[in-house]
Design goal:
This protein is mainly beta and about 350 residues long. It is about 5% helix and about 45% strand. It is built from one helix and 26 strands. The chain has one helix spanning about 285-300; strands at about 5, 15, 30-35, 40-45, 50-55, 60-65, 70-75, 85-90, 95-100, 105-110, 115-120, 130-135, 140-145, 150-155, 180-185, 190-195, 200-205, 210-220, 220-230, 235-240, 245-250, 255-260, 265-270, 320-325, 335-340, 345-350. The strands form six sheets. An eight-stranded mixed beta sheet has the order 4-5-6-7-11-10-9-8, with no helix packed on it. Strands 12-13-14-15 form a four-stranded antiparallel beta sheet, with no helix packed on it. Strand 16 (about 190-195) and strand 17 form a beta hairpin. The longest helix is centred in the last third of the chain and has 15 residues, at about 285-300. It is globular and about 75 Å long. About 35% of the residues are buried.
C-alpha cells in the first residue's frame, strides 16, 4: 500500500506515491485525474484489478486503468438523473455499485464488445441512497438510505459471474438480480453508513439518530440489535473483526464498539485520548494588545477571552467522513486503520 487517491473537495482526484511512509511530507503527487465536472463524491480502488473507480455530483462515473504510466478513463453508462453519492467495487473486482440521489443503485459490469461499463438498476428505494457495501460472497449488496432504512439486495450479474451454491450466504442460493432480500427500519434517521463483517454473518448500519444496529444471521433468520449511544452520529463504520466495529463521525474521534453476550454492540472506548500535559501559558502583553484581543474574541467567538480550552484536542478538527482498513483486503482481524475528515486530514491508527 504505497499509493493513495484523494479528492481535495473539488472535481479532481489526486494520486500520491510513497505513502507507505507515515510522514506525508515525503509523499509525491504523481497524477491528477480531472475528467469530472463537479465534486467527486466517491473513490474506490480495487486491490484485485488495480482499477480505480470514481463518481461525482455530475451524475457520471469513470473507471481508470493504469497504462503507459498514466491513468486512462473508461466510459460508464450510469443512467441516473441525480448526483452519484458513493461507489464500491465488488470483492472480486468484476463489477461495482453506485449509490445515487436518483433513488436507485446502478450495478455496473464491463461489456468488452463495446468497451464500456454498463449498468443494471436497483430501484426499490424511496429516497437518496447514501452508501453501499458488498457481501464477501460478491452477490449481496447492502444499501443505506435517507428514507431511514437499510436494505439487502441480490446483485447477481450473470454476464460476469457464476451462481453461488446453497449455503454460500445468509439467503442461500443465488437470487435474481434486484430481488429485495431484507429490509431493516430500526434507525430513526438517515442511514449514514453500512458494513458487512469479514465472514458475512453480520451486518451493521449507523443512523443519524446516534444509533448503531447490528443484524446477526442464524441460517436464514435475522436478529437485529440496536444501540442508541450517548455520542454524536457516526458517518462511517467498518468491522475490525467479527466482534469489533470502528466508527467515526461528528465526534471528530473514532469510536470502538464491541459485541456483548446478547449480540448487541456497545461503546467501549475512543481511539483518540486527551493528553494530560498542561496547556502552555499565554504570553504577557500590554494593555492595548489585551483589549484588542478581547474585542476580536467577542466578535469571532462571542467570548470575552480566548481560553486554551477553546482549541480542539482531537487529531481531527471536523467530521470524520471515512474509516478504512490499512491491512490486506479481507483481513479477518484488522490492526491498522485510516480515517479522513472534512478538516482535510488523513490520520493513521493502530488498534
Amino acid at each position: 500500500r504505497s499509493m493513495i487517491a484523494i479528492c481535495p473537495n473539488s472535481n479532481e482526484v489526486h494520486i500520491y506515491s510513497g505513502c507507505s511512509n507515515p510522514d506525508p511530507s515525503t509523499w509525491t503527487r504523481t497524477h491528477v485525474l480531472a475528467e469530472h465536472d463537479l465534486l467527486v463524491s466517491g473513490i474506490d480502488w480495487s486491490p484485485v484489478t488495480n482499477k480505480l473507480v470514481t463518481c461525482s455530483h455530475d451524475r457520471n462515473a469513470f473507471v481508470w486503468t493504469f497504462q503507459d504510466n498514466e491513468w486512462k478513463p473508461s466510459l460508464v453508462i450510469l443512467r441516473i438523473n441525480r448526483a452519484a453519492i458513493d461507489v464500491k467495487w465488488s470483492p472480486d473486482g468484476s463489477k461495482f455499485a453506485v449509490a445515487s440521489a436518483a433513488k436507485s443503485v446502478p450495478v455496473c459490469h464491463y461489456e468488452e464488445s463495446n468497451d464500456w461499463w454498463i449498468s443494471k438498476m436497483i430501484k426499490k428505494h424511496k429516497s437518496t441512497v447514501l452508501e453501499v457495501a458488498w457481501h464477501p460472497n460478491n452477490q449481496l449488496l447492502l444499501t443505506g438510505c435517507s428514507d431511514f432504512k437499510c436494505r439487502i439486495f441480490s446483485a447477481f450479474v450473470e454476464e460476469c459471474e457464476d451462481q453461488l451454491p446453497d449455503g454460500a450466504g445468509p439467503y442461500g442460493a443465488t437470487q435474481p438480480f434486484g430481488e429485495l432480500l431484507g429490509e431493516f427500519d430500526q434507525a430513526r434517521g438517515w442511514v449514514e453508513s453500512v458494513a458487512w463483517s469479514p465472514s458475512g454473518a453480520r451486518l451493521a448500519f449507523a443512523g443519524h439518530d446516534s444509533s448503531l444496529t447490528v443484524v446477526n444471521f442464524q441460517g436464514s433468520q435475522a436478529e437485529a440489535h440496536t444501540n442508541r449511544f450517548n455520542l454524536l452520529p457516526l458517518s462511517s463504520i467498518m468491522f475490525a473483526n467479527e466482534d469489533t466495529i470502528i466508527g467515526g463521525g461528528h465526534e471528530f474521534n473514532p469510536a470502538v464498539f464491541t459485541a456483548d453476550n446478547s449480540g448487541s454492540f456497545v461503546f467501549q472506548r475512543s481511539l483518540d485520548t486527551k493528553s494530560s500535559a498542561p496547556a502552555p501559558a499565554a504570553a504577557s502583553t500590554g494593555g492595548f494588545a489585551n483589549a484588542r484581543a478581547m474585542f476580536q474574541s467577542k466578535t469571532t467567538r462571542g467570548q470575552a477571552k480566548n481560553d486554551a480550552s477553546d482549541s480542539l484536542w482531537t487529531k481531527h478538527e471536523n467530521v470524520i467522513t471515512q474509516v478504512t482498513s490499512r491491512d490486506a483486503p479481507g483481513a479477518a482481524n484488522v490492526t491498522q486503520i485510516a480515517t479522513t475528515g472534512l478538516d482535510g486530514r488523513i490520520v493513521l491508527w493502530r488498534l
